[in-house]
Every structure is written in structure tokens, then in C-alpha cells.
Write a structure and sequence with these properties.
Radius of gyration: 21 Å
Largest sheet: none
Distance between the termini: 22 Å
Helix content: over 70%
């Protein structure tokens, strides 16, 4: 059951539930406008962030903790839209402070670990291989959405999950692929497994966010969405800073900047651009959880990951093996089936509304 079906049920008994008060006030055209804006931010920002992350490593960057930090440290820019929101919508959840604190802390710690795993994965894999492995987010999210968010897995989604799983397996077993850092085949396989684990954690995190909004916070305004993004990013950034100093990598940052192949200015711009891109992508992802569902959010994020390998091949001249070509085609087909299922669900909702109108 998707969000619009939930909205129909709640409109019949609006007084008994206040879980999605703003969504029920939106016209259909307004709802789609917000969805398309969120999709644009998620797809474009995530693709740019991955390419900039690979560019950082290609041009001499080597700090895994800096790569982890830039994925969340851009969160202060989110205070601007939060301040522009009406005071009545900027916060005010039915949750107590203690509950919100533990939600933000636990999700923030998970995000910090997840980002570190992604940083290692991007170091050990090419941008195209990394992106295709990340497509497995959709597989994990389908499973978590079924058990945590009580979403049904249709036949089309089941076929899509199978295609995406096979696609990731082909990338992992591609004998012609190698680590861009010059490592061995084992380094490549380690990168694959770390990226798979990161994808699993990310998918679990999305489902838990949706569960938190629907079952615990029970106050889904856009202000609450932004606040969750800000405070979980704050926790993840603190984890990254602690890791940066504990690992001793901070001592090498000056040397790393001076030896960056494209110069010190480009070094700074790369990190700043990566930080902004990741944050805009995260806002798009969380907004889609708010507007639709965690499954749809991960679907759109996965669509970006399917497109990113093409950009990586053009920008970085990644090796285009036969295995990658087949895996990419299977990933496209898998995502297309997911999108078609969402289209069918939307038609079903429209039919239900027309029936009730008469």
C-alpha cells in the first residue's frame, strides 16, 4: 500500500489520525510538484557527489575520514529553509525530547558508519563499479520495507530484486575489473563487500526513518524532515571528526592539499562541492520518504546510481567490460520494473478515488 492509498483511508477518518496532516491538504498537482523537485535534487546531487568523491581520490586525496566527513558536514545550509518555514510548521512533534534525542543519535551513528564504509568502497572501486554495487540498496530496502514498514512485495518487484541481485553479482565476479587504486583483485572484492554492507545499512536506515515518522514522531511536516536531516548529520559529522583525529589522518591534510594534482584551490572546491552535493541529495531522499515512502526514495536514489556509471565512463574513462555492460542493462531493467509497479499502484489509487467520488 503506497502513500496515496494511505491518504485515502485517512481522509475517510481524518479526525482519528494526524500522521500526515500536510499531505492531505495538498492538491494532486502540488504533491507531484514536490515529488519531482525532490527527485531532481536526489538524482543530480547524488551523481555529482559520487563523481567528485572519485575525483578526490584520483587526484591524490587519500583521507577516508575526510571523505566520510564531507558526506554530512554540509548540514548547516539546511538551516536556511528551516528558518523560512512558518513557526507552526518548523518543529512541534508529539514526541518528547528524550525520544527524539535517541532517534537522532542512533540514526546519526548509523549514518556515520555507513558513510565510512562507502568511503572505503569508493576508494577501492571505480565510480562505475561502485555505483552499480550500490544499486543493491533497492534489494535490501524491499526486504526491510516488507518487515518494518509492512509494504507488500509484488511479482514485478520480486523480479526486479532478482535482476538487481544478479547485476551486483556480475560486478563482483567480473574478472576484468580492477581496483583504481592499483590494488589486487582482493582489494577489489573487499571494496565490493564493504559497499554491499554500506548499502544494507543505508536501506535499513531509510526504513527506520519512515517507521520513526509514522509510528513514533507522528508529525510529518517538512520542518520535521529537515530537522531530522540536520541532527542526524550533526551526529554523523561528530563521529567523522573524532575518527579523523583518532586515526591521525588530520596530520596529513596539509600535505595532501599541497600535493593535490589540480592545486590547493581545486582541493578545497572539490571537498566543498562534495559536501553540498551530498547534503542536497540527502534532503531529496528524506523528502521522498516524507512524501511517498522509503521504498520509492531508494528507487529514485538507485536510478541515479544506474545513470552515474555512464557519466563515470565519460569523465574518468572507466573500463567498460562486457560484465559491466550486461550488469548495467539488468540494473536499468530492474529499476524500470520498480517504476512501472509504482505507476500501476498510482492508477489503482486514482481508480479508488473515482469510485468513491461516485
Amino acid at each position: 500500500m503506497d502513500v496515496e492509498e494511505l491518504m485515502l483511508i485517512k481522509e475517510e477518518d481524518e479526525g482519528s489520525s494526524q500522521v500526515r496532516p500536510q499531505l492531505m491538504k495538498l492538491k494532486r498537482s502540488q504533491w507531484w510538484l514536490f515529488v519531482f523537485i525532490s527527485i531532481f535534487f536526489l538524482i543530480s546531487a547524488q551523481a555529482v557527489a559520487v563523481l567528485l568523491g572519485r575525483f578526490y581520490y584520483n587526484e591524490g586525496g587519500n583521507s577516508k575520514w575526510i571523505s566520510t566527513l564531507v558526506q554530512t558536514v554540509g548540514f548547516p545550509i539546511l538551516y536556511l529553509p528551516l528558518c523560512l518555514l512558518p513557526a507552526s510548521h518548523s518543529s512541534s512533534s508529539s514526541c518528547c525530547f528524550k525520544t527524539l534525542f535517541w532517534i537522532y543519535l542512533s540514526l546519526g551513528l548509523a549514518i556515520g558508519l555507513d558513510n565510512l564504509l562507502y568511503s572505503y568502497g569508493l576508494l577501492l572501486l571505480s565510480a562505475s563499479a561502485y555505483s552499480l554495487i550500490c544499486v543493491t540498496q533497492l534489494v535490501f530496502n524491499a526486504i526491510f520495507s516488507c518487515f518494518i514498514n509492512s509494504q507488500k512485495i509484488s511479482l514485478l518487484i520480486g523480479i526486479s530484486v532478482s535482476l538487481l541481485t544478479i547485476s551486483a553479482g556480475m560486478i563482483a565476479l567480473d574478472d576484468d575489473s580492477e581496483s583504481p587504486s592499483g590494488g589486487s583483485k582482493w582489494s577489489y572484492l573487499i571494496g565490493v563487500w564493504l559497499t554491499l554492507l554500506a548499502s544494507l545499512i543505508y536501506s535499513l536506515q531509510l526504513s527506520l526513518m519512515q517507521y520513526s515518522f509514522e509510528e513514533i514522531i507522528k508529525k510529518e511536516t517538512f520542518g520535521m524532515v529537515i530537522e531530522m536531516q540536520i541532527y542526524t548529520s550533526l551526529v554523523a559529522s561528530i563521529v567523522s571528526v573524532i575518527g579523523l583525529f583518532a586515526s591521525g589522518e588530520w596530520k596529513m591534510l596539509t600535505t595532501e592539499m599541497e600535493e593535490f594534482h589540480k592545486g590547493q584551490v581545486m582541493y578545497v572546491l572539490t571537498l566543498v562541492g562534495t559536501a553540498i552535493s551530498w547534503q542536497l541529495g540527502s534532503v531529496g531522499a528524506v523528502a521522498l520518504i516524507f512524501l511517498v515512502s522509503s521504498l520509492f526514495s531508494n528507487l529514485i536514489g538507485t536510478l541515479s546510481l544506474v545513470v552515474t556509471p555512464l557519466a563515470a565512463i565519460l569523465v574518468f574513462h572507466d573500463k567498460l567490460t562486457e560484465g559491466k555492460i550486461v550488469a548495467m542493462l539488468m540494473a536499468f531493467l530492474g529499476v524500470a520494473l520498480y517504476m512501472y509497479q509504482n505507476y500501476l499502484d498510482d492508477l489503482k489509487v486514482q481508480s479508488s478515488r473515482e469510485t468513491q467520488a461516485h
